[in-house]
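Appendix B.2, paired examples.
Example (i):
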Amino acid sequence: MDIEKVLKIFGDHPDLASLAVEEHGSRVELSRFNPVVSPTVPVEPVTRPTDVPISINSATLNHQICSPMVGTVYLSPSPGEPTYISIGDYVKQGDVLCLIEAMKMFNKIKADKSGYVVDIHVSNEGAVEFNQPIVSIEER
């Protein structure tokens, strides 16, 4: 059986979906891949309601002050003294918010914007990571 001749015949007749040739006990079957195409059904466009209430987390609107380093946070200047800030306090740009101890050095973390303290994300004497939120301020 000449396989190349069978392939040529099959290739020359694109109208043939399949071809089977048997000769001297050998059988060759060829078939074309014809994917079934289903008819397209038109779909109506989806209309979106115009008056949908939107819930926005206020934390996403607040300005976050993040840690510039890895270290230990201190919310007051020394043990037993009041904290630098509390939730609800108004802070001005440049006010000290807390201290971060890193490599035996105490670094003052200052407010870069003015506003009301709405959340304190760290605890006194807790560990803080680089770029971890420390305080959220609502600008007004």
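Example (ii):
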Amino acid sequence: DTLTIVTGAVGVAKLLKNAKASERDLYLGTNHLVIPVPQLLWKAVIYPTDDRSSDVIFFRSNYYSERT
């Protein structure tokens, strides 16, 4: 049996500067919007069996807030 792992990302994480300010998208890079920081990361682990498939899915949210 082979274990299959699939990963992905959805959206662009946002930075909330403070409660009254608007959010802005987060990117990796200096002075350029090079690589967007994912808002949500997911990973599916699929282990096929004879009777049925045993799958597990993990989610992780990237939430950033500037300290005030």
